[in-house]
Each structure stands twice: as C-alpha cells, then as structure tokens.
Amino acid sequence: MFFTTVLNYFQRDFPDFSAAEFIKHRRASAFNIEKCSPYEVIGVTGRSGSGKGYVSALLSEYCSLAHFDADEVYKKMLRSDCEMSRKVKETFPDFVRNGEIDRKMLGKLVFSDKNAKLLLEKITHPFVKIEAERFIAENRGAIIDAPLLFEGK
After folding, report:
1. SS3 for the chain, per residue?
2. Averaged pLDDT score across all residues of the chain
3. 3-12, 62-71, 116-125, range with the lowest pLDDT
4. Could you give the CA distance from residue 152 to residue 4 in angstroms, rounded to a whole number?
5. Any residues with CB less than 8 A from the CB of 98 and at least 6 apart, and which?
6. What is the percentage of the chain residues whose pLDDT exceeds 90?
7. For residue 62, with 0-12 CB atoms within 10 Å meaning exposed, 13-18 middle and 19 or more buried, which class applies?
8. Span of 9-23, 53-67, 84-98, 116-130 with lowest mean pLDDT
9. Closest CA to 50 of 21, 13, 8, 90
10. What order do you get walking across the sheet with 67-69 strand by strand?
11. Is 81 exposed, middle or buried (0-12, 13-18, 19+ CB in 10 A)?
C-alpha cells in the first residue's frame, strides 16, 4: 500500500516521468528492480483497490515482463464455456441466469457465506493456476497480479 501511495504522489508531482523512470528514480526497495531478468516471476498481491494492477503495470513496463491479471482471467473463464465455468454452474445452479453465471449474485453469496466462498475457491483456483503456469511458460516469466496469490497456492 505504501509503495502504491508513493507512486500516486510521484506521478501527480512528476507527470512527465514514465513508469520506468519512476521506478528507477525510487529504486523501489520492496522489489529487486535492478535485477529483473526475462525469466523472472514477480507476484503482486493485495486486497481489492490496493493498487495491484497499477503496480503490476509499472513493473511489467520496467522489467519487460508480460502481465498476468488473475481477476481478468477468472472473469473471462466464468463467461466462457470451459470446464471451470461448467463446474461453477453445476455447484451453484441458483446463480445461473440465461445460461450465464450471475457474478453479482454469486459474489453476494460468497462474501456472506464462508463455506460457499471456500467451495468456489476450491473449484476455481486450480483452473486459474493452470492458466498462470501456461502464461508464465509461454512468456518465459511474468508479473502475476492476484488478490489471493498465496491463498490460492
């Protein structure tokens, strides 16, 4: 959170700096920025709204690594007709509208019922992990932006 706040203030005060110049200027002590290699995998995690995407984009630009956004991959998979989506539909049939998962309604359930949340995560995390591993292999490294990076194992 501190790093993101610093980024926001810095970019407000120095709008002509690129993300790479910003990171070089700050020497981002939380990250070993100066030693990024094309085979690195850097994880960025945090709660919703904490600036994961912003920091991931900056690191991606500076380190020349592809950016994997776990939330976006998860949303795309839920909208598609893949195995993960089918399993979620089978497990939570009351949250399917016109053949699509109603994410808003499912979200209300999982944020009010710990068991439902754990069940949803048990279904979805392995699929998102497979996509992340594929992405890393294809890109020979990546910035991984995931709210549950450690919890999702």
Report:
1. CHHHHHHHHHHHHCCCCCHHHHHHHHCCCCCCHHHCCCCCEEEECCCCCCCHHHHHHHHHHHHCCCEEEHHHHHHHHHHCCCHHHHHHHHHCHHHEECCEECHHHHHHHHCCCHHHHHHHHHHHHHHHHHHHHHHHHHHCCEEEECCCCCCCC
2. 77
3. 3-12
4. 23
5. none
6. 37
7. buried
8. 9-23
9. 8
10. 41-44, 142-145, 67-69
11. exposed
Q: Which tokens go with 104?
A: 């808003």
The count of residues in the chain is: 153
Q: What are phi and psi of 80, to 5 degrees?
A: -90, 175
- Beta strands at 41-44 and 100-101: parallel, antiparallel or unpaired: unpaired
